[in-house]
Amino acid sequence: MASLFSQFDSDRIVAAIGAAEKKTSGEIRVHVTRRIPKDLEEGALRRFHLLGMTKTAERNGVLLYIAPRARQFRILGDVAIHEKCGLDFWKDVASAMEASFRKGELTEGVVKGVERVGEVLARHFPRRSRDRNELPDRIDQD
Fold it and tell me: What are phi and psi of 36, to 5 degrees?
């Protein structure tokens, strides 16, 4: 199991989150599960709520939920970002991530997802001087 997580370069992912969030009031979280979820969508939604993603001031949090053992992932956005971007945006992010994942480049896939989400968050929710980091910039695991 440890080797699974060693495939992720945590420092690089956390740096990508920090860089993306410097340009936006949005919040990006990454969760990696050791489990093979019975219902990936339900697991991602549960983690979205547990991480406080719905409690951001502008309701613009995004979670990248990754289940490497199941070879699956989900991207969830809170209501404000989803309203602004729609389904095509989520498909675009997923496609970029999946291309790297298929090559076994797990870190690269996550970083691409974070960067793409950050670009769109910055466009719709630009950072203002009074913004603060509402959620930790780290990889959450279970």
Answer: -105, 100
